[in-house]
Amino acid sequence: MIDNDRNIQHWLEQLPPISLDEMSGIKLMNRTDTKFVTNKQKLAQLLELAQGQYYAQQIDDARIANYRTVYWDTPEYRFFLEHHNGRAPRQKIRVRTYVDSGLTFLEVKTKNNHGRTKKKRITVPDHDRAVIIKAGGSEFTQKLTGETFDDINPTVQNRFQRITLVNNGKTERLTIDFNVQFHNFETETDVGTGELVIIELKRDGNVYSPVLEILRRLRIKPSGFSKYCIGSVMTNDHLKNNLFKEKLVRISKYSGERFVV
Fold it and tell me: Which stretches of the chain drop beneath a pLDDT of 70?
């Protein structure tokens, strides 16, 4: 594990940096997402192969950012079940904090039946329900989902670290998440994910992506992964989970942990 972390850091530092200002034109708020699941050993290899083709986002000399996200759902788990049952369009409500900067956003993500994801968000001061409502959170979520903050509750929190890469053509973003930890507010259960790495390719349409060839070379195949849904079934035995059992077997393989539902 130590060698993998060291190798990741080494190859990450070899990539040229790109600042937030330079990335301002690559927001991709209306995009297609493709996710891949692997482990830290393969991530180090990917960063080595990405040399010369990608920039690494750098903020205040740091290339690994820390995130905290809390997902909100109805008492009947409307948004979880929409995903589990394969409904499209489907939505999720989350409050995300960029820990290093202290910025917090209330976000609604909508995935349509063409595989495109739209994300809308507003700034909120923190994760407190009353503060979110005062900042206009209920009006925001009601307009987009029909639910207000009187209708929903915090369900699952995740904390993770993220590397963000941008291709030389600046037509895509690659987010790489690892050290993911989940906490369930209902069951008070905490779960870590070991060596697991979640890669997400974000681009407008099907423009050419250099990383796809790298992923094929490393035999890393597309694999859907919802942090909200996977975190929910890992930490709450009472949720419907048929769709996710096979995914948990695969996650166990990459993480070095054993997850059973």
Answer: 1-2, 25-31, 205, 258-261
Residue 195, domain member (yes or no): yes
Structural domain including 68 reads 2-255
Task: Confirm if 175 and 200 have CB atoms less than 8 A apart.
Answer: yes
Q: How does pLDDT run across 158-169, given as a tens digit for each residue?
A: 999 999 999 998
Query: Alpha-carbon distance 82 to 77, whole Å?
Result: 9
Q: What pTM value is reported for the model?
A: 0.92
User: Rounded to an integer, what is the distance from CA 88 to the centroid of its chain?
Assistant: 19
* Residue (of 230, 201, 226) closest to 216 by Cα position: 201
CATH number at residue 103: 2.40.320.10
Please count the structural domains in the chain: 1
- The crossing angle, in degrees rounded to 10, of helices 2-14 and 40-49 is 20
**Span 53-82, pLDDT tens digits:** 999 999 989 999 999 999 999 999 999 999
Residue 260 belongs to a domain: no
- What is the spatial distance between Cα 254 and Cα 162, in angstroms, rounded to a whole number? 17
Residue type, 258: R
261 falls within a domain: no
Burial of 5 (0-12, 13-18, 19+ CB in 10 A): middle
Task: Evaluate whether residue 199 is within a structural domain.
Answer: yes
| Contact of 227 with 183, CB cutoff 8 Å | no
